[in-house]
């Protein structure tokens, strides 16, 4: 057990650093593409991204998670059955995606979606052959798993930037997506430790359906939020507004992508120790505290420096995105409180609360977010996103107490938010006494001050946990929960 704790903790820290690097690469890509691609072209990609996201969300119905959770005697058979289900499900989704392209074209009035829509559908199907990554994931062989997973974003970055600089417009996004999916799938097949065969036994589908059904409902609720927002924005504000929504979601999603990797790193270990609630609680609290040390400062930095990002970075044509970015930043910071709760409920086989939280957030967004978008435009949309996030956070806090009776979300939030407040206060104080025109040097200076003060405050508040994290990276055993 002690070895498992050390391995899981060390894997989490190393993979977080790995993910931060890839996440930064994706963030840089979004800035470069925003610089070279028009708002309208970004809007076209926004429609494609939501469309692809729809099917990717449906694709992530838990086949891989269930494979990691299972403990069959014949692991090769277990993988091949999971791969068979994944291939069949993805093939069905690909057909649906192809059939939906004409409908999307008519709904948005964008005939230029046809050709890139076909490429996106092909990329979706090709991505099925990345399934061998599950085997390394279950074995907690994070080095090989992350090396294979990195192929997609690295290749996608290179191709997307090259196409954007060449003036390819929305094809820069599509080309990067397709190239990354093909390269990653090819690498996974070449390095697969088991043969990719189609095998199925009666009862397999039923077992996966019980686990994945609520996750499918949760995915559907997320889809309703995304689609309703995009359609309302297009009908009320035009294609340019879709570009703003897509860009802000990409930038604000940087922290979420890294945190998803942290959760993914922990998941095999969580499954292995799911009967030990004390160890589960320790891993939950410590992993969340570590992630919040940078996710909260990143979110509030986005809120504080969004005007500078637009003015000195991606260009003034993105000025309508400022308010949306500011609200998104604060909402993203709060949304990371207990962000990895779904991994623990999946490991325990309790997937229904995940669906309830997602449906609750959907209901709030439809009841409040869409009307606010129609009344106040993009700022109203941002407020709606924040409110649906708060609804999901309330559900998260309720269900976490059912598994971890000693967990207090308010206390957890206070501990996570306090180290960021001094840095934000110093920046606001500096701006209150500024007498010179706003310049890039001044903005970068404030950002450096914010980072320095926040790092100092974080060390003061979390020194013991940070020392433990450094020890883990060096191979020492983590300290017991306290």
Question: What is the averaged pLDDT score?
Answer: 80
Strand proportion, as a percent range, falls in under 5%
Computed Rg: 22 Å
Number of helical stretches of at least 4 residues: 18
Count of the separate structural domains? 2
Number of DSSP E strands: 0
Stretches with pLDDT under 50, minimum 5 residues: none
Distance between the termini: 18 Å
Shape: globular
Describe this structure in words.
The chain has helices at 2-36, 39-59, 63-69, 75-108, 114-126, 133-138, 142-165, 171-191, 204-237, 239-272, 277-314, 321-335, 341-347, 352-376, 378-403, 409-417, 421-433, 440-473. The chain is mainly alpha-helical. The chain has 2 domains: 1-24 and 213-482, no CATH class; 37-201, no CATH class. It is globular, with a radius of gyration of 22 Å. The protein starts with a helix and ends in a 9-residue tail after the last helix. The mean pLDDT is 80.
């Amino acid at each position: 057990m002690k070895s498992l704790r050390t391995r899981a903790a060390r894997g989490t820290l190393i993979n977080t650093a790995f993910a931060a690097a890839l996440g930064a690469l994706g963030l840089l890509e979004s800035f470069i593409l925003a610089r070279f691609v028009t708002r309208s072209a970004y809007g076209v990609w926004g429609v494609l991204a939501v469309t692809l996201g729809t099917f990717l969300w449906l694709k992530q119905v838990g086949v891989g998670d269930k494979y990691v959770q299972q403990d069959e005697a014949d692991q090769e058979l277990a993988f091949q059955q999971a791969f068979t289900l994944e291939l069949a499900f993805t093939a069905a989704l690909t057909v649906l995606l192809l059939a939906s392209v004409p409908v999307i074209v008519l709904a948005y009035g964008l005939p230029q979606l046809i050709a890139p829509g076909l490429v996106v559908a092909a990329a979706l199907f090709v991505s099925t052959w990345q399934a061998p990554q599950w085997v390394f994931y279950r074995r907690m062989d994070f080095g090989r798993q992350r090396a294979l997973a990195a192929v997609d974003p690295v290749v996608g970055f290179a191709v997307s930037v090259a196409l954007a600089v060449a003036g390819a417009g929305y094809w820069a996004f599509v080309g990067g997506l397709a190239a990354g999916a093909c390269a990653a799938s090819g690498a996974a097949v070449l390095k697969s430790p088991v043969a990719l065969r189609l095998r199925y036994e009666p009862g397999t589908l039923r077992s996966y359906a019980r686990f994945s059904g609520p996750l499918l409902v949760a995915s559907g609720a997320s889809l309703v939020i995304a689609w309703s927002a995009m359609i309302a924005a297009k009908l009320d504000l035009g294609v340019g507004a879709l570009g703003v929504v897509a860009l802000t979601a990409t930038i604000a999603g940087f922290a979420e992508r890294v945190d998803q990797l942290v959760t993914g790193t922990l998941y095999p270990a969580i499954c292995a120790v799911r009967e030990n609630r004390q160890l589960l609680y320790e891993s939950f609290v410590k992993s969340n505290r570590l992630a919040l040390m940078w996710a909260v400062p990143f979110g509030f930095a986005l809120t504080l420096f969004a005007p500078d990002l637009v003015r000195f970075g991606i260009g003034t044509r993105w000025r309508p995105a400022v308010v949306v970015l500011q609200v998104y930043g604060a909402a993203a910071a709060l949304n990371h409180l207990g962000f990895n709760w779904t991994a623990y409920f999946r490991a325990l086989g309790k997937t229904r609360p995940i669906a309830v939280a997602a449906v609750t957030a959907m209901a709030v967004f439809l009841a409040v977010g869409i009307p606010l978008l129609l009344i106040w435009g993009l700022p109203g949309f941002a407020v709606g996103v924040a409110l649906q996030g708060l609804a999901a956070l309330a559900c998260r806090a309720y269900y976490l107490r059912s598994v971890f009776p000693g967990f207090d979300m308010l206390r957890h939030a206070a501990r996570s938010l306090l180290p960021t407040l001094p840095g934000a206060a110093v920046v606001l104080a500096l701006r209150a006494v500024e007498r010179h025109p706003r310049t890039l040097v001044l903005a970068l200076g404030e950002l450096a001050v914010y980072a320095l003060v926040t790092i100092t405050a974080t060390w003061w508040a979390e020194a013991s946990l940070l020392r433990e994290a450094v020890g883990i990276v060096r191979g020492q055993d983590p300290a017991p929960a306290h």
